Predict the structure.
Amino acid sequence: MFNFLGNIEAKMDAKARIFVPAAFRKILQSSSQSVLILRKDIFQDCLVLYPVNVWEEELTKLRTRLSRWDKAQQQVFRQFVVDAERLEMDANGRILIPKRYLQMLKISSEIIFLGVDNTIELWTKEALDKSLISTEDFSNQIQELMNNNPEQGFSNQ
């Protein structure tokens, strides 16, 4: 299982190649994962890198909820996979970001790699800053979420 964690700035070279950060590369290499699937996030203006086996798990989850014989559901599946691109890390740990993704998100040369559980997100600084909620809103939302879903630990008093 993957557990990517971190907020790492990186720069692309002139050919739109970028080094996967060493901490993330180490996790991928320890699981023999050199193939990644790139897709634009559904909700945010960022790109998401899925290790290939995580991508396959996501596709399986989606397939089990959709009917091949329902026109609208077939379109949802198609839309999910149409923006996916298979990338392979080279021997130096670089990936090539296709130009259409760079244009889609207005990425020039600087990218922030954000480890988010079993995926890696790629952001511009501006888009990431816009997507974050205030510290106070975050605090209130996490408090509400955790108080409504108590688990083991300190008592809920």
